[in-house]
Known about the structure:
The complex is a heterotrimer.
Chain A: H1 3-16, H2 21-37, H3 44-69, H4 77-93, H5 98-122, H6 127-146, E1 151-152, H7 160-163, E2 165-166, E3 170-171, H8 172-190, H9 192-202, H10 204-209, H11 214-240, E4 242-243, H12 251-261, H13 273-292, H14 297-323
Antiparallel strand pairs in A: 1-4, 2-3
Helix pairs in contact in A: 2-13, 2-14, 3-8, 3-9, 3-11, 3-12, 3-13, 4-5, 4-6, 4-11, 5-6, 5-11, 8-9, 9-11, 12-13, 13-14
Chain B: E1 5-16, E2 19-30, E3 34-39, H1 45-52, E4 62-67, E5 70-72, H2 77-82, E6 85-88, H3 100-105, E7 111-112, E8 115-116, H4 118-131, H5 147-160, E9 165-169, H6 177-192, E10 196-200, H7 204-210, E11 213-218, E12 221-227, H8 233-241, E13 259-269, E14 277-287, E15 291-296, H9 302-310, E16 318-323, E17 326-328, H10 333-338, E18 341-344, H11 348-352, H12 359-363, H13 368-371, H14 379-392, H15 409-422, E19 427-431, H16 439-454, E20 458-462, H17 466-472, E21 475-480, E22 483-489, H18 495-502
Parallel strand pairs in B: 3-10, 3-11, 6-9, 9-10, 15-20, 15-21, 18-19, 19-20
Antiparallel strand pairs in B: 1-2, 1-4, 4-5, 7-8, 11-12, 13-14, 13-16, 16-17, 21-22
Chain C: H1 2-28, E1 57-61, H2 68-84, E2 87-91, H3 99-111, E3 116-118, H4 124-136, E4 140-141, E5 143-144, E6 154-156, H5 159-174, E7 180-185, H6 191-207, E8 212-218, H7 223-236, E9 242-245, H8 248-261, E10 268-272, H9 276-283, E11 289-293, H10 295-310, E12 318-320, E13 323-326, H11 331-338
Parallel strand pairs in C: 1-2, 1-3, 3-4, 5-6, 6-12, 7-8, 7-9, 9-10, 10-11
Antiparallel strand pairs in C: 11-13
Amino acid sequence: MNKENSKGKAVFKALLSKNELGAVLPLALLLIVVAFVNPNFFSTGNIFDILRTASFTFIVAIPLTFLLSSQGMDLSVGAATSLGGVICGMTLKAGVPLPLAIVLALIAGAAVGTLNGILIIKSNLPAFIATLGTQYLVNGIIAIITNNLAISNFEGNFKQLSQYKLFDQIPMPIIYAIVLGIIGQFLLTKTRFGREVLAIGGNKETAYLAGIKVNSRRMVTFIGTSVFASLAGVLIASRFASAQPAAGTGTELSIMAGVIIGGTSMFGGQGTVIGSALGAILLATITNALILMNVSTLWQNAIYGLILIVALYVDKYRRKALSGE
Amino acid sequence: MNSEYILQMKNVTKRFPGVVALRDVSISLKRGEVMAICGENGAGKSTLMKILSGSYTSKEYEGEIWIDGKVTDFSSVQVAEACGIEMVYQELNVMLDASLAENIYVGNLPMKGIVVDYKKLYSDTAVMLKRVGLELDPKQRVRGLNSGQMQMLSIARTLSKSPRIIVLDEPTSALTDKETDILMNTIDDLRREGVSFLFISHKLDEVFRIADKVVVMRDGAVVYENDVKSVTEDKLVEAMIGRTIDNMYPKQPAQIGEEVLRVEHLTVPHPSNKGQNIVEDISFSLRKGEILGIGGLVGAGRSEVLSAIFGYITRGVTKDLYLNGQKVNIRSPLDAIKHGMGYVTEERKQTGYIWVHSIRENLTLACLDKIFPRGIVDKNTEKELADQMFERLDIKAPSVETMLVNLSGGNQQKVVVGKWLLSQPTILLIDEPTKGIDVGTKAEIYKIMNELTHSGVSIIMVSSDMPELVSMSDRCLVLSNKHITGELTGSDITQENVMKAAIAS
Amino acid sequence: MKKVLAIILALILCFSLAACSSGDSGDTDTPDNTGDNTPDSTNEPSDEGGDSDDTVVCYSFGPMTGGAAWGQFERGFMTACEELGWEGHYLAPTADNNMSQLFNLHETAITNGADVMIPLVTDTDAMSDILDTAVEKGITMVGCCMGDPHFPGYIGTDPTNLGYTVAEALVQCMGDQEIHVVTMQTLLSTQSQVDQVDAFEEKLMELRPDATIVRREECNSSAQTAQDKLSAVCIANPETNALVSFDSYAGLGAATYVEAEGRQDDFCVIGIDDAAEILLAIKAGNMDATVAQMWYKMGYESVYLANDVREGKEIPEYTDSGTSIIMPEDVDAWAEEMGTDLSA
């Protein structure tokens, strides 16, 4: 209203228009608090620890950003993660060379994604339940083929895939995540594919009438999600030199939460890969920061939940303020 | 205290960040009076409604509301309801899988102890249904009703609450003429019982037919107010758009050329009645530069014809299409677009635009080939194309980056039309080109259609707006009872002839 | 292309189903009916098949199918059943550690005509009604891991004993160094683990009054979480020099931490159980020792305890299946005894 305020307001408005605000604000607050309590937080080692944790989440969050912004949903990513690690581990043990073992793991992931796609796109089943079904199915298959035993003791340099540190400092998963993240953000914002995915999420019918191949694009998002999840599974198996049958169990909801906190709309049409990266970093930071501030673990879940809710509120307020209501 | 007025709004001003939606609005409504409120989209009518319904609480705006001559604090929706104010919204808001009775008495079911008194519920419902001219079983489910019947159902729901003031927002946009008549009679009856109405409408003939008083709003302010008896249609239109228009329908006939599209043996199944066809074995053709109007009553299958030609509906459809004499196979919208077609659908929100996307993204949606050469965005081309169209259509918004959700209906329609202009079609299918948009924008849409035909584009236009159909069509087909029951050309295209064909069987 | 993928997918599914059914038959076709069982199951009301009339049907339960620990339990249980000529079934939830499903499985066993049950009572109150029904139907019960008034006795690893053993292992490994230890369990809310950790702390204080407990942590059976949390704890409390795990993923995560940070010489990890990857971590020097519970023995002896009950013998209220500390020099021998494959 006042002229003095107008500049501040403009800045505020520009800030509001950033989808990523929901993740940035709580993250900034958290960083400020932890900086006062324990400056060790900002040691290089710890920062890389957090980024590494976030990387595993983020690699799955990239395709999920596409999937959620096309109004999709996938509860089977955790299972696909486990499957990727287990298939890679089993084939390695069987003497398959590493590159081929990784490819086989990704193909297994693609099979899961294809199944999801067929169920949801072709047969028009509700995504929430259909992918829950796939989740059980895949977990069951894993239990059968592994008898729930971890696969470990690999020959060769499998564990270097995740454990190697670039310049003796930067864990490789961070590098993978950055490269894939840049590709993802480019795909989403600069390519026809990204535009089509967002249009489908914004309004499937409008997109179809405008000549967009809706089914094929949605199929790609489902397959991509499972493929990236199985890649994450391979990397996790490499990190521990052990492919665990339950490596991805229970991760699906927190990854999705990270994507949504980052500013990707659950209702489709809007997505940001950068936001998903921030969401993943926020989630990793919460756990780390709480320990560094010596907050009892008993409190962690409560605080974790609280921060998620705050992040969602920020996002909701932002959207409301923007739409002028 | 007894006052002549049942409702008075005094100097109401409502601000949004950066915009004044209502500017010092004062209106006074007498008992048993029907007051029409006219204005272009974005004139402030819906804000006014939200204030009266209590959706915007009294803290959020300046000014006072008086009920029965007393200041009343509209602090919540409940206050508005207690004052006897009821809203009938344009968007249908019904529970599809509940019975008619439950829809009418939802939240207000007659009880016998702790159980619902179904006997009373159904007999009360029957009375209400009769009142709005619906001859249906109260126990029937809503699914399967057409949109006109659903609209009448929402009106019945409103009546069941015995309101003193009813606010109707474009109540007839989904209604057939017969249903409109019933609604008008119902309003007349209620007016005699002392119920007052605020009647928001774009349709001036209805205003003249039913209203006692008319208020015109523009840019959030009341700019004109008079008894209906002493105004003319021209005067109202002038007040609404703030300038004089010589001719509402500036049809400029274009050079009509060769046949560009021939549709033969088109059969489309009925969308809800299984085993039935909505149109059966119809054939017609379209010529270069022509506007082919398609008239008929709601449910005659006009929209389905367009959807089937465009490949949007394919299941159960049989058709032979010839483009410039060549047989073509169109199995999806993508095929149709490749053959140079465009399709402006009737339901903008459901099938026309993406409300969370910007004007730019919506405009370029059907010409992604141009802005993504080799799959990667060419930002300059995109910006150029979007800006051009933004200016050409004179879309009223801060910039091309404004989201569609923030635009008025008229401007949204312009964006949808602009999307198809950018794909440069040779044949444009338009379903209800001006549904729910204001007079000024209507004229602009007609102007665009004229420009298109002059540049050689052919248009098939479905319209329920009789004057529009009559004056814009070069040739007019009328559908009724699954078949083409009339083909009118030149001076034969009159409202009477269209109507006769539309009720023929 | 899509069709090809669909076919591949279908093949995978068929393959897995085939694998599933063959696995089942391998487990259930084995009982050789020698008739040395006591056919006193006359109060068994819901006999369906004629063939089950004189065969004792015995059910046991675990929180997951297979797995390093429960897989061994299942093997021990099945072997004992086979020896006695009983029909053995091992039931586990479809989702690992799904407790409510685990309760339901107990009911399933009762309705399917169990003669003997080895219940896994993870929650005494929640399972009370189910166990009442079992008692009414005259089903013989011997507990596993946890005791309950509904049955005469149980076999398991005593949480106190386990905690004590872990403390002893830690003290043994640390020699005369200072001890600043983190404990890590599955969930802070898992009662049996809380008992183990309490006992560990008590014993540690007794053996080494100068030791400090840096923090109690949980990792929700995720090696990633375990490693991440341990890193953070060591930054917050740089003096930390040991971790004892009460969850096998916690040990794995800690071993990975040691390897990544190169702290083999100044950080001590005590694992739990004897899964292959744990034994390998010890061999590689990233873990100092592990405390093995005797899962095979638990499964095997539970069946013989139940047989004793059926024959009217008294059994002790608690039978400790025991624990064993595995030091680096014991690994190979242990693996051979357990049939664990440590080869690459």
